[in-house]
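TL;DR need structure tokens for one chain.
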Amino acid sequence: MNYILEHVLGWRIEDFNAEEYVDAEGASDDEKKREWLDYHLRSGETIRLVVEAKRIGSTFSLPANRVQRKIPLRQLLKNNSKPISEAIRQAQKYCLKVGTLGFVVTNGFQWIASVAFAHNVPADKIQAAVFYNLEDIQSNLQEFIDLLSPPAIADQSLMTHAIAGGSLAPTFARRLNQLLRPGEPQGKNYLAQPLHVLMNICFADLTDADHAEMLERCYVSSEAADGYLTQLESFVGTTLPHGVAPAGKIDRGTFDTGPFTEDYRNAGASVLLIGRAGSGKSTFLAITRKRLEQKFGKTGWVLLHVDLYARTQTHATNFDHDRMIADICGDLLVQAEERYPNLNPFDHEHLNEIFAGEIRRLRTSLSASARSADALQLRIDELIQGHIRDPHSHLKAYLGYLRRKNVSATILLDNVDRGTEEFERVTFQLAQALALNTKATVVTSLRDTTYHNGKVLGFLDVGRHIAFSVSPPPFTEVVRRRFEYARERLRVDTRLSVRFERALAGMPSERVYDFANILAEMILGDNRDIQECISFLAGTNIRRALELLEDFSTSPNTDLDKLFQQYQRAEKRQRFEFGTPIDAFLRSIMLMRSLRYSESASRIANLFQVSQRLLVSHFTAIRILQFLSWRANQVRETMDIPVDDLVGHLGAIGHSSVNVVEVLNHLGKFGLVVSLSQPEPPWSRKDVVRLGAAGRYYLDELMYSREYVRNVVDDTYLYEEATLKSIELLHHDRDKAWPQRAEEKAKMLLLYLARREHEELNRIGISASRPPWLKPVIEDIGTRQFGPSFAAAFRSHQGPSKGAGSGSVGQTDGRVRGTKGSRPPPRG
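>> reply
TL;DR here they are.
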């Protein structure tokens, strides 16, 4: 047996943990009784297998037909010999006690392997893999190894084999939204159209050519505080991953900083400007270019800029590299022609100087008879026209010409990281070649994740570039400046005010300005609930934060009359803070423009969502977030974990690898989980991930919110037909006011989820065997929202406890933690 485990399956002898003892069934703490577990194979944190070994010669009575590799585990327990059933039950019991999913029962010659439990897979659906004797193992050796070796256990091969892809969801599984008629919201936001115009003014992209004035007026030169960044950023340091230090940090308020200093202007270099997505890299480049042009005029410094985001090659994996380079160089030359007429790269006199070296070599190469004025000029014109037809050659010669005239040249390549890996690679090579061959300064802006992959993983050659980082501005300061600018612009811009008046459709404009005051008070005032919500959901992405604010302002579910009433009451009390409930904000950004919450049309994810096709756990998303949160608190240097390891940890408590990866990518789509190795999902098993700022907010705050639960109930697939029907009947119960119906629907959902969570945790085994990061949550959520009555209602469905591990889910000490509404306890 040891030989097979070590030399055939590849378990190391030090992984055996033979004769490990566990608490005996029913033993009290005083008795200290123990039972001996034959082998508890453990390799690393997640690769685990219980082996129940029987004496050699103790033959198992197995079906005579050896062709049958899979046998239902229940059949082996009921219809076969007593030694088999006793050994399997013993192995299952040990699995629950030590928190290990898979087991093997063997007498050395016959091997039976299966899992002790799997979430939402009935016991009669679990299969066992049976190898009938050593000859069977030898004949099917690869299959044997592919099920029971450490790599196979890590890959959940045994679990996949045992549950046969999982159990199908019941045919009645539906979301409430599927049973209700689609409808339009009541339109409580009667200023939606003019507010849409106002938001377009407030939150337009400052890098557009039409927004030069707004760029000057709304640019925020200060940076977000380090504490704010540390709290929101998912990567350690000032926007850069741990261990990837830049040459310097850009000062947002100084325009002759970093690559724009005199030293870089004179020497030239390939420079990388690195920051998080939405952190203001493009805005910084736009304002810097504008102010440097004002300072140096049209002759002292040539600054050329190209935004690569809109190019057709950006998102292509296969494209003509030479054509792309020619297009970029051509655009830069045209820009130089328009902005710097005194240094026009297409002017005839300048062209003779630009290609002076080539012309000199041409003169030298010609015979005396070919050097007549007319013939020579013809040859020179042909040479120049030939170079002009090659924009790459023309640009390099032009930059060399500027260097000879002592005119500094800086090229800004923006949004390089928005393209494919091949697009990034070609652009990097162009930037490096231009800097090396012409002594120009070429600044390439990209995300920190792209830089990390290039620096650490080596898929881009960033080692020859100098890196500077840029941090985002404070979100509240951005909003304040945008609102001030919008108000003044509406007052002085006749064309814009006419468009605004048309959108008002007869309503007084003061009403919109009043709402703008409310909005500003909500974001800039002393009440921090909404500020915190936006900040965590957006992370350091200012662009996304502004989008959330715009969603709230223009959603038809935003109840303007109620907001005005609350604001007026606050004014009468002469209180400076305006306590807009976070629930009102959540409702609008969850429902967006729909009557009911639908995850597919919302910016907010449903943590309890499951598949309509396969029976899976309602808690996979929460367990992923719990594990990543625990992991972040356990390590000092890096919180990143390979997806493979995450799958292993979740697999150890019964979650299938396919479901874990699918849910992980779904969380990534909403920004709850982030990755250094691949900024956007889908992620492979080899990528690394970590908890994002939004994921921490969902885990600590959002899922405890009353409004969150009241909305997700409409869009969660339910696996209990009685619960689904009860919620549907309650939804249509006109004898009750809507707020009461919404509350009772939410309570029904939480009671259903609490029962499911209780059942799942019971399958995993006693609390002591569960991993430290796994915490029951639903009873806690219900108790915070509905008080002790929820816990009583839930326990009434459970009946008396039966042995270890059957206690109530989420047992508490009787106190409801947290002091602010439905908020959870403080972090940490």
